[in-house]
Specification:
By secondary structure, the chain is an alpha+beta fold. Helices cover about 20% and strands about 35% of the residues. It has five helices and eleven strands, in the order αββαβββββααββαββ. The protein has helices at about 10-30, 65-70, 140-145, 150-155, 185-190, and strands at about 35-40, 50-60, 80-85, 85-90, 90-95, 110-120, 125-135, 160-170, 180, 190-195, 205-210. The protein has a four-stranded antiparallel beta sheet with strand order 2-1-3-11, covered by helices on one side. Strands 7-6-8-9 form a four-stranded mixed beta sheet. The radius of gyration is 22 Å and the shape is globular.
Length: about 210
């Protein structure tokens, strides 16, 4: 397509506008994000595949591969599911540098991950269900988890539903709960929680086996 002198992209404000947009999009693509990863592995001496949850911060899921391998060094760990955490309930979840205080403290609630366990009659296994929730404290997060259909219906007489684990993600020391973010990432980043009722789509769930490079 031949452009006239006045429409050449290398001239005037049009060039500056396009350059700014490219820079802006490039910056957005490089923003660190919070990832929730379901890892699978059959460690030496075990008979069936085991699973665990990994939470980490990176610009892409691929850049978390080395961290996941360090997280589970026994055997050949792989990914069974992963989620880029952008929306939890009516909140937007973003990552900011630890020393960037702009926007800090806008929401005092914290992000919690709860691992629910329950049973179905005549099934020789424990069912599990993960809950991500934004709440002021562990008690409120536990109360929220107990309202889920999983908690209410995955139990019967003699085998009640329960909460296996309660984790606070990016919580202050006053919370006596185990934190999931790696220590080096907690030193570099913080999680920002912003109310955005009805403005964001639900996070995509990526399901399926992902082999990590050797």
């Amino acid at each position: 397509m031949k452009l006239s002198q006045g429409n050449k992209l290398c001239k005037g404000h049009l060039c500056r506008s396009i350059s700014y947009k490219i820079f802006y999009l490039s910056s957005m693509m490089q923003q660190p994000k919070l990832f929730l990863v379901l890892c699978g592995c059959t460690p030496p001496g075990r008979h069936v595949e085991q699973h665990d949850i990994f939470l980490g911060i990176a610009d892409t899921i691929e850049n978390l591969f080395p961290h996941i391998k360090n997280f589970w060094p026994e055997g050949r760990v792989h990914i069974d599911a992963w989620r880029e955490v952008n929306k939890v309930e009516d909140y937007h979840i973003t990552i900011a540098a630890k020393n960037d205080t702009e926007g800090a403290g806008a929401v005092t609630d914290k992000l919690f991950l709860l691992n629910l366990g329950g049973y179905l009659e005549n099934k020789f296994e424990e069912q599990h269900y993960l809950v991500l929730t934004v709440k002021p404290n562990k008690g409120a997060a536990t109360k929220e988890a107990k309202t889920t259909l999983f908690y209410q219906y995955n139990q019967f007489t003699g085998a009640t539903s329960h909460i296996d684990d309660r984790y606070g993600i990016d919580v202050d020391d006053i919370y006596e709960i185990e934190e999931l973010l790696p220590a080096d990432q907690k030193e570099k980043y913080r999680i920002e929680i912003t109310p955005v009722a009805g403005l964001l789509e639900e996070d995509a769930l990526h399901l399926g086996y992902v082999k990590l490079p050797v």
